Amino acid sequence: MSELDAQIPTTFDPFAEANAEDSGAGSKEYVHIRIQQRNGRKSLTTVQGLKKEFSYNKILKDLKKEFCCNGTVVQDPELGQVIQLQGDQRKNVSAFLVQAGIVKKEHIKIHGF
């Protein structure tokens, strides 16, 4: 019986290495800052990908006070919590997050135009 056990192939998972790499990708997660066009010249700036341990409402409060704009935190089923700000605040938000020490500059991706 021992020879028969040695000849039975074991199950092979081709995605085992990929899943192991994904688990270590937490350090490479990016914060995405995007702009969405509304009507005419109006636009929205969205910030997604912040770590869950941060208080989104406190960050939003500081962003609103710093840039004199309105904003909200939206719960998205796929993306989680997303901060929305009025106007094109991409560069401002990027500089604020780096200066506050929330995110490193190399972990920020700015999208749009």
Automatic annotation (TrEMBL):
<keyword id="KW-0648">Protein biosynthesis</keyword>
<feature type="domain" description="SUI1">
    <location>
        <begin position="31"/>
        <end position="101"/>
    </location>
</feature>
<dbReference type="InterPro" id="IPR001950">
    <property type="entry name" value="SUI1"/>
</dbReference>
<feature type="region of interest" description="Disordered">
    <location>
        <begin position="1"/>
        <end position="26"/>
    </location>
</feature>
<dbReference type="Pfam" id="PF01253">
    <property type="entry name" value="SUI1"/>
</dbReference>
<dbReference type="InterPro" id="IPR005874">
    <property type="entry name" value="SUI1_euk"/>
</dbReference>
<keyword id="KW-0810">Translation regulation</keyword>
<comment type="function">
    <text>Probably involved in translation.</text>
</comment>
<dbReference type="InterPro" id="IPR036877">
    <property type="entry name" value="SUI1_dom_sf"/>
</dbReference>
<comment type="similarity">
    <text>Belongs to the SUI1 family.</text>
</comment>
<protein>
    <submittedName>
        <fullName>Protein translation factor SUI1</fullName>
    </submittedName>
</protein>
